[in-house]
Design goal:
- The chain has helices spanning 17-27, 31-47, 67-75, 86-97, 109-114, 131-147, 155-166, 172-178, 192-201, 210-223, 235-245, 272-278, 294-309, and strands at residues 51-57, 81-84, 101-102, 117-120, 123-126, 152-153, 183-184, 207-208, 226-232, 251-258, 281-291.
- With 310 residues, the protein is α/β, with parallel strands linked by helices.
- It has one domain: Deoxyhypusine Synthase, CATH 3.40.910.10.
- The protein has 13 helices and eleven strands.
């Protein structure tokens, strides 16, 4: 029990981010220690052969520069499967063509509304940078697909088409399509991209086949020897990830990053140990919960991982 002593940080020389993370493991320091353990679990997961690697996250982070972390995970093929929300599609597509801006958590929201500016936390999203451009691009994509004979499509297939037809190299969807990494969005109707698909269907006999994606996820987990997941935040993307993994006796590697509490019984705040009781995470899994803002935690983790793999 009394094996590894706590050590102070040493700033006597310059250090890389990865060296800092390694010092965190020795300094321990509450969340710092968890972050270091999380990087080690991610390293083990990425190195594991025959392990299907999931990343799950919510769309709000894609409105920030954290989008670049997810893009790199996918571009460098450090993950095999993406499960996310419709907000990810919205922000990823929109930011290929328009800019979002730095704001503040405390602003005059009535004045922002009058000026056609939407506030997402401390990020400002003008109407022309969101709804307008998404409608323009999505209606063009859907019309092209329709004219090519596509009357029904799964959300993951639609994500691939968006990535190939309307995104650039800054984009999550672009790199997912290029690297043949599926993007699953179980709640695709809950956002601008899903709304545009519905709007298109009002004048066309066009359908989104959500159950087709369920079949693909079923095949993935039933044939996987091991699975692991980096799960950011909560909601439908988190639950979809752990839900499917219960059918192979649970995830073998798990890193949660969230600011949510567990006292209210929410899924977002539920710790990995709770998922063990459901069989969604293996009893033997390497697992950690990092309590913290993903916009701070993820760039540090990513920098450390890239130093180890790239």
């Amino acid at each position: 029990m009394l094996r590894d002593a706590v050590e102070d940080y040493d700033f006597s020389s310059e250090m890389s981010v990865d060296e800092l993370v390694m010092q965190m493991e020795k300094a321990w320091g509450f969340t710092a220690g968890k972050l270091a353990v999380g990087v080690n679990i991610m390293e083990s997961m990425i190195k594991a052969q025959n392990c299907v690697k999931f990343v799950s996250f919510t769309g709000n982070l894609v409105a920030t520069g954290t989008r670049g972390v997810f893009k790199e995970l996918i571009r460098r093929k450090l993950v095999d499967v993406v499960i996310t929300t419709c907000g990810t599609l919205d922000h990823d597509l929109a930011r290929c063509w328009r800019k979002y801006y730095r704001g503040s958590f405390v602003m005059n929201d009535s004045k922002l509304h009058e000026e056609g500016i939407n506030r997402l936390g401390n990020v400002l999203v003008p109407n022309e940078s969101y709804g307008t451009i998404i409608e323009e691009k999505m209606q063009l994509i859907l019309e092209e697909l329709w004219n090519e004979g596509t009357k029904e499509i799964s959300p993951s297939q639609l994500c691939r088409e968006i990535g190939q037809r309307a995104c650039n190299e800054t984009s999550i969807l672009y790199w997912a399509a290029k690297q043949n990494i599926p993007v699953y969005v179980p709640g695709i109707s809950d956002g601008a991209v899903g709304y545009q698909a519905w709007l298109f269907s009002q004048d066309h006999d066009f359908k989104l086949n959500i159950l087709k994606d369920s079949g693909q996820l079923s095949d993935l987990v039933f044939t996987a020897k091991e699975t692991g997941a980096l799960i950011i935040g909560g909601g439908i993307s988190k639950h979809h990830t752990i839900w499917w993994n219960q059918f192979k006796d649970g995830l073998d590697y798990v890193v949660y990053v969230s600011t949510a509490d567990e006292w209210d019984g929410s899924l977002s705040g539920a710790r990995p140990r709770e998922a063990v009781s459901w069989g969604k995470i293996s009893e033997k899994a390497k697992r950690i919960m990092i309590e913290g803002d993903a916009s701070v935690v993820l760039p540090v983790m990513m920098s450390s991982l890239l130093a180890r793999f790239c």
